[in-house]
Design goal:
13 helices, 2 domains, 403 residues, FAD/NAD(P)-binding domain, alpha+beta, five-stranded parallel beta sheet
Length: 403
Amino acid sequence: MKKVAVVGGGAAGFFCAIHLAQRHPDYQISIFERGSQVLEKVKISGGGRCNVTHQALEIRDFVAFYPRGNKELYPCFHRFGATETYAWYENMGVKLKTEPDGRVFPCTDSSQTIIDCLLSQARTLGIQIHTKHRIDNFFRRASKWVVEIAQAEQIFDTLVLTSGGSTAIWKILANLGHTIASPVPSLFTFNVKHAIILDLPGLVLPHVTISIKETNHEQSGPLLITHWGLSGPAILKLSAVAARELADLQYKFHIDINISGLKNMERALELLQSHKYSASKRPIYSEKPMPMPNRFWEKLLKHLLIPEKNWADLTKGELQSLAKSLVQLTMAVTGKSTNKDEFVTAGGVSLKEVDFKTMESKLLPHLYFAGEVLNIDALTGGFNFQAAWTTAWIAAQSIDIGK
C-alpha cells in the first residue's frame, strides 16, 4: 500500500488529503498536526465565520490581491480558482453566500460549517488524522521519505507539507537545501499618534491615497481611524505590499496621505481659491471644499491653527497650508498592530524551487507543498484561503506514486 504523509492539519492539508483520497482510494493518507486540534485557523478566520474565498473575478484582477505569488498563481487559478472552490463546497452540501464586498461565507455564518465538511469528508474517505504529533525531522532514504515523530521513524512514499508558517519545518527544509524567505508580518495596522486623528476612532475617510516616504509604495482606498492609529483597506494593502521593507525599517517610518484625490498642491490651491470665491461669505468650519467627515475637517483646520472665519477672510498663507495638507498630510508611524485576530506572514519556501504545475519540489522528489508554507500571501477577503485550496488541489491531482 502506498503511503502519503500530510504535515499540517489546516485548510490546505485537509483539502489536499481529501482530493488525493478521492483520486487514489487505495492510498493510505495520514494527516499529522502538532497541536491538539485540527483546522484551528479555519475556526477563527473571518471573525469565526470563515471567509472561504472571494467572488470570481478575471484572473488578472484576482492575482492582483497577492503581493507575493501572483505570477505563479496566475495559471493555477485557471485550473482551480474561486468558481471551482464555490462549486466544490456547494456540492458537499455547504451553502455559500457572496457579500456586497465580494467575500464568500457559509450561509450559516459559522466556520464550524466548513470544519464539519472537511472532517466529515476526511473520515468518510478513511484519512487518518493524528493530533499532538510533532514532526522532529524528515529526510530521504533510498526512494522513501523518513519522518521522525516522537523519536520514532515512519516511512512514506510521498510527503506533502501544508505546515503554514512553522519555523521548525522551514528549518528542516533549509537543511535539505531549500531556500526559505524569512517570515515577516503582513496585513497589519499602523500605530500613529497625531493631533488630527486624536478622539476620532471609528471615523472613515472613504477614499485616500497613502504613500510611504521611505519607499516607493503607494495604495488607495478607505482609511479607518482607530484608537491606536490607522487601519482600513488602504493601510492593510500598503502593509502587505511593503511588508519586507517595513520590517527592515523596524516599523518606524513616515506616510503621506492625500485626502483630496488631486494630483498636487497646485491643483488643490486652485480648488481652494475657487471655493473661497464661490463660498466667500460662508464659515470655513461648516463649509467644506470637498467631501470628508465634518469632524476630520474641523480637526484639520484646528491643527493648522486656522481660526473660525469666513472663506473670504482666509489669507494666502492659510490657503497654501491647507492645500498642502489636503494632498500631503504627513504622519509618523511608530509601530504596528495585528489586524483583528488575523496574523498573516510574508515568507516561506522560495517559489523558484517549486514546480507550480504539480506543486512538487524541484530539489527533492515526492515532496509537495501547499498553502502558507510557501512564500505566498494575500490581502484580506478570502484570497489566502483560495491560495490554499488551489495549491492543495493541484498537489492532490499531481501525486501519482509508482509512476
